[in-house]
């Protein structure tokens, strides 16, 4: 993002420069009406990664612009998901539109690589580039032009002070270089993976490469070849990435994004021991936790938890309300909720395997379970997902404390229960200060009694025989004449009225 001179506008227009990785890619895109420039064609302007600098600078006589970090290449497989890249581009533009407060307009560089248009990636990329050409991307107005034109009126910050003395060597920065390709060669849109016969001809490993490897490491990595790659590519990629102990970029900052929202993060497989993170940690420490806690359950778990941490870090920074009522972001339990959602969608058919989804599909599934009320789910499914997410109603913990103050022997919570029940108990006590529990409160018992009352009404009104399955009760809306709240309130009041009424000087029933 860079600043160009001009008036501050509410209806922001983002300036965009499209940079092709090579001349042959530029020629190929030109056949579709997409005008781009190559790194050589923008010289003497240099293009640097954002990790180098974040603005337009004049450094020792050089003009430098920086491209967003989302275009950096990574050896983690998420960078190969072009739909995720497109989503990141749209999110970045939305972020600029929402938070740009400087005078002038921002400049956004889009890097297009040859690998972006191979196979099935081509059409989504072409659609995005066409949207840039039309001037509207994800609800953000954009203006595409040559970089020299866009930067001509830019406010350039001088950084000549980097060279302290004449004898001191100039600092070296790596600029984005044009891809060297054979002359007159053309871009091919075939899949980036070779066909099967070619793969069989290529040796997987060499003796030199594996000479110092442990036997079990070699066997583990060769075992990946036995899996059905054409039918299950995402699962195989995750398996291989985990066996190689890959670590995604920006993992530590993503966890920090969660922590600054006043929440904790737990890493570990569902149903197994978890590690609670309440302070920022280094990438190395996080990597050790993930691979120690997750790989005993499923090798792929370690990398998909990294995916979710990245997605959650971005979502909670931009839409923190989606995590309301969640004090701990338990990654393993979130995976459990996502797998449950896939079962719901599968219906009577076998559910899709979470590990077979692409990173962009995983992100969308995460967004779906964080907003169960917007997807037409029944109350049973909403409660199942909210339970897996450890989501509680507003003010839940304060109300639990209020209950404990008036429940001398505490609360029993075991098995499956509705957090809604504690809210009902708290409201009843708040409205009836003269009442208090004489003994411990068994929430499971109260839920079963409420279910019994529910069954009596079902039997009387719908002539349905009583049964032990509580699914219909959990699938009932909370509010309404025969909502779960009405039955829970009834049993709570019955329990309170079984005890003694605490006298009060303000009690209107007392004569003196």
Automatic annotation (TrEMBL):
Keyword Manganese (UniProt): no
Pfam families hit by this protein: Glyco_hydro_15, KPBB_C
Domain (GH15-like) ranges: 235-333
Gene Ontology molecular-function annotations: calmodulin binding
Keywords: Calmodulin-binding, Carbohydrate metabolism, Cell membrane, Glycogen metabolism, Lipoprotein, Membrane, Prenylation
InterPro entries documented for this protein: GH15-like, KPBA/B_C, PHK_A/B_su
GO cellular component: phosphorylase kinase complex; plasma membrane
Region (Disordered): 184-207
Pathway: Glycan biosynthesis; glycogen metabolism
Location of the protein in the cell: Cell membrane
Membrane topology of the entry: Lipid-anchor
Domain Phosphorylase b kinase regulatory subunit alpha/beta C-terminal residues, every copy: 374-414
Main location: membrane
Domain of life, per lineage: Eukaryota
Any single GO BP term: glycogen metabolic process
Family per record: Belongs to the phosphorylase b kinase regulatory chain family.
Protein's job: Phosphorylase b kinase catalyzes the phosphorylation of serine in certain substrates, including troponin I.
Subunit: Hexadecamer of 4 heterotetramers, each composed of alpha, beta, gamma, and delta subunits. Alpha (PHKA1 or PHKA2) and beta (PHKB) are regulatory subunits, gamma (PHKG1 or PHKG2) is the catalytic subunit, and delta is calmodulin.
PANTHER family per the UniProt record, alphabetical: PHOSPHORYLASE B KINASE REGULATORY SUBUNIT, PHOSPHORYLASE B KINASE REGULATORY SUBUNIT BETA
Protein name per its UniProtKB record: Phosphorylase b kinase regulatory subunit
UniProt source species: Bos mutus (wild yak)
């Amino acid at each position: 993002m860079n600043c160009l001179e001009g008036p501050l506008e509410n209806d922001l227009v983002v300036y965009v420069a499209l940079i092709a990785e090579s001349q042959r890619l530029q020629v190929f895109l030109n056949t579709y009406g997409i005008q781009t420039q190559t790194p050589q064609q923008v010289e003497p302007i240099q293009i640097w990664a954002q990790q180098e600098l974040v603005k337009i600078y004049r450094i020792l006589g050089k003009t430098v612009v920086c491209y967003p970090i989302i275009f950096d290449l990574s050896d983690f497989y998420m960078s190969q998901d072009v739909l995720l890249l497109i989503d990141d581009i749209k999110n970045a533009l939305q972020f600029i539109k929402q938070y740009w407060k400087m005078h002038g307009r921002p400049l956004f560089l889009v890097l297009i690589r040859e690998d972006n248009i191979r196979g099935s990636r081509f059409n989504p990329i072409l659609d995005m580039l066409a949207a840039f050409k039309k001037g509207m991307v994800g609800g953000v107005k954009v203006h595409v032009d040559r970089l020299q034109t866009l930067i001509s009126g830019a406010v350039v910050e001088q950084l000549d002070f980097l060279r302290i003395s004449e004898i001191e060597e100039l600092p070296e920065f790596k600029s984005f270089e044009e891809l060297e390709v054979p002359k007159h060669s053309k871009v091919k849109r075939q899949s980036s993976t070779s066909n099967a016969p070619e793969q069989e001809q290529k040796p997987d490993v060499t003796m030199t490469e594996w000479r110092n490897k442990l036997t079990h490491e070699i066997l583990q990595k060769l075992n990946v070849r036995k899996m059905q790659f054409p039918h299950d590519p995402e699962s195989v990629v995750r398996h291989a990435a985990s066996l190689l102990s890959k670590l995604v970029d920006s993992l530590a900052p993503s966890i920090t994004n969660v922590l600054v929202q006043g929440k904790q993060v737990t890493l570990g497989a569902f149903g197994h021991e978890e590690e609670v993170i309440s302070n920022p940690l280094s990438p190395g420490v996080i990597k050790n936790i993930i691979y120690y806690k997750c790989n005993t359950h499923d090798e792929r778990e370690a990398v998909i938890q990294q995916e979710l941490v990245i997605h959650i870090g971005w979502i909670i920074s931009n839409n923190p309300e989606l995590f309301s009522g969640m004090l701990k972001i338990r990654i393993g339990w979130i995976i459990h909720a996502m797998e449950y959602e896939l079962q719901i969608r599968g219906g009577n058919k076998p559910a899709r395997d979470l590990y077979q989804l692409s990173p962009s599909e995983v992100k969308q599934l995460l967004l779906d379970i964080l907003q169960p009320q917007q997807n037409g789910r029944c109350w049973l499914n909403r409660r199942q997902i909210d339970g897996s997410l450890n989501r509680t109603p507003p003010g839940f913990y304060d109300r639990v404390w209020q209950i404990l103050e008036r429940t001398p022997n505490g609360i029993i919570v075991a098995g499956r229960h509705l957090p809604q029940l504690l809210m009902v108990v708290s409201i009843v006590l708040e409205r009836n200060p003269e009442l208090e529990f004489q003994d411990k409160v068994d929430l499971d018992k109260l839920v079963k009694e409420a279910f019994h009352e529910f069954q009596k009404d079902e039997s009387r009104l719908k002539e349905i025989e009583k049964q032990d399955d509580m699914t219909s009760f959990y699938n009932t809306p909370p509010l309404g004449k025969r909502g779960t709240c009405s039955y829970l309130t009834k049993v709570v009041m019955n329990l309170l009225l079984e005890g003694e009424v605490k006298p009060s000087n303000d009690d209107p029933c007392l004569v003196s």
